[in-house]
Amino acid sequence: MILLVDIGNSEVVLAVERAGAFSRRIRIESRIGPTPDQVGVELERLVRQAGGVPGSFLGGVVASVVPPLTEVYREAAATCLGVDLQRLPGPERLGVRLLVDEPATVGEDRIANTVAVARLHGRDAVVVDLGTATTFDVITAAGDFLGGVIAPGVRSGAEQLFRRTALLPRVSEGLPARVIGRNTAECIRAGVYTGALAMIEGLIARIEAEWGRPNPLVIATGGLSGFIAGATPAVHEVDELLTLKGLAEVWKTLSQTGHP
After folding, report:
1. Residue 258, domain member (yes or no)
2. How far is CA 161 from CA 29, 155, 179, in A?
3. Domain boundary, last residue among 61, 87, 113
4. Same domain for 40 and 12
5. How far is residue 30's CA from residue 179's CA, in Å, rounded to a whole number?
6. What is the count of structural domains for the chain?
7. Which residues are catalytic?
8. H/E/C letters for each residue in the chain?
9. pLDDT of 174 strictly over 70
């Protein structure tokens, strides 16, 4: 078994990969300040749900965009599960290139997505990752990360709307049946979710026109990717596990070439 940890700004995704399959996955809040013991409780719960026991792991990989949490999770994994949770190595070791002005600023989740696209799809792609931010990763078939877009996230944008207005209510997540709302809740859902979908479609069209590559694969991933499944022909595939699959590929590299 392999432990995979994706630490995002809003959520931490914990997963167990076994023989190429993800036997269990849980999401917890990315809360600054937990102790390794508190994190260890969640890790042990994950292992029990996956049908494993501490000490049964071959190893693990963590991708993190929240530095204060990274070492907390690494310590918890070592203490509670006996897992040496590895950081991502340099991109050259993973067979990818970061062809941007400031490679050191590229998030580890975006690197994991690049690895997943290069190894599992092998074609030019745009990855739309819907999390705290909505990011667009432009990736070649050879594993070159060319850059992309960072836009406000769907949920975080909605949260700002609710916090900064006195009379607008919180609404359930998801696309409305129509764009022209006939009550306040319908209007908000149209603005937040149909608006997000329109932004995604518009940016994909502009990226494709500027890039000039024919028919890149467009993959949606991230915690909120489910809401656009089947909602637009601009997105060809929804894969909520894409980043975790990339981390599993990183583990293969680490296990084959030796840990850092």
Report:
1. no
2. 21, 10, 18
3. 87
4. yes
5. 33
6. 2
7. 109
8. CEEEEEECCCEEEEEEEECCEEEEEEEEECCCCCCHHHHHHHHHHHHHHCCCCCCCCCEEEEEECCHHHHHHHHHHHHHHHCCCEEECCCHHHHCCEECCCCHHHCCHHHHHHHHHHHHHHCCCEEEEEECCEEEEEEECCCCEEEEEEEEECHHHHHHHHHHCCCCCCCCCCCCCCCCCCCCHHHHHHHHHHHHHHHHHHHHHHHHHHHHCCCCCEEEEECCCHHHHCCCCCCCCEECCCHHHHHHHHHHHHHHHHCCC
9. yes
End-to-end CA distance of the chain: 20
Does the model's pTM come out above 0.70?
A: yes
Structure tokens that stand for 231 in this block: 């909602």
Inside any domain, residue 239: yes
Closest CA relative to residue 260, chosen from 104, 65, 1, 84: 84
User: What are 236-260's pLDDT values in tens digits?
Assistant: 999 999 999 999 999 999 998 766 5
CB-CB contact of 155 with 147 (8 Å): no
Does the residue 259 lie in any domain? no
Full residue range of the structural domain in which residue 49 is found: 2-87
Residue pair 81/43 in contact (Cβ under 8 Å)? The answer is yes
Return the CATH number at 146. Answer: 3.30.420.40
253 falls within a domain: no
